[in-house]
Amino acid sequence: MRTYFPQQFEKVSPKKVSDFIFDQLEESIILKELLPEEQLPNERDMAVMFNASRLAVREALSRLEEEGLIEKRVGAKGGTFVLPLTLNSHHRHREQIASNWESWSKVFEYRLIIEPEAAFLAAQHIQAEQLHQLQQYLEMSIEQDCSRELFRALDVKFHLMIAKASDNAYFEKAVREIRTKINPALDLMPYSQEVRVRNSDSHFELLDVLRAHDGERSRILMRQHIEQSASSIYHRVFDHDIRTQEKESESL
């Protein structure tokens, strides 16, 4: 009897050890688990951490440097340091996002399914210490001296914690994947007191319904929050007036 194999098998592509190291470090930087100016361990220590050769670590670090994610510095205070992602994100990503908007739209569609359902489950399973951690993230985000990079990092932590609180590892993994993909676009967003207040108000409202264990309301608020985020990104990428104003300010 003849066996018919599916036609959608992917072809095997070799992946080097350095690629695995690069992927993990890139994800940690994009998700802001490694913050700007944070110094990475030296090559020898990283080789032990990843159970890999120093050559593989060196290759991964070279790729990260090419991507503008890290910087190697020499001197008494030298080493390898994480660079701020938001500082020049509009130069790095706007045209990339615009030229590949169809693909980005698919990610936003996926997010609209995953994160509201994660919030629904989180309302049922969230623990007291997780609620306390979410409260701390929000309080830090409204401090006057909260930098743009820290604000963006706290936003990521807030969403990842809700996914973790869903008590479903699949949702948690999915949200990590989503945030890794969309963070470059979110880093395009302006940073001002108005933005901080709007975002914080939305997060505080969501925290209140999570604390009340209101799953349906948590789902609705998360969906509204994500829809607003996607709309803001779209206008940031394609609005001609916004782009003109930014170019004018850069030339001053």
Automatic annotation (TrEMBL):
Keywords: DNA-binding, Transcription, Transcription regulation. SUPFAM superfamilies: GntR ligand-binding domain-like (SSF48008), Winged helix' DNA-binding domain (SSF46785). Residues 15-85 form the HTH gntR-type domain. Pfam families: FCD, GntR. The keyword Repressor does not apply. GO terms for molecular function: DNA binding; DNA-binding transcription factor activity. InterPro entries: GntR_C, TF_FadR/GntR_C, Tscrpt_reg_HTH_GntR, WH-like_DNA-bd_sf, WH_DNA-bd_sf. This is HTH-type transcriptional regulator Mce2R. The lineage of its organism: Bacteria, Bacillati, Bacillota, Bacilli, Bacillales.
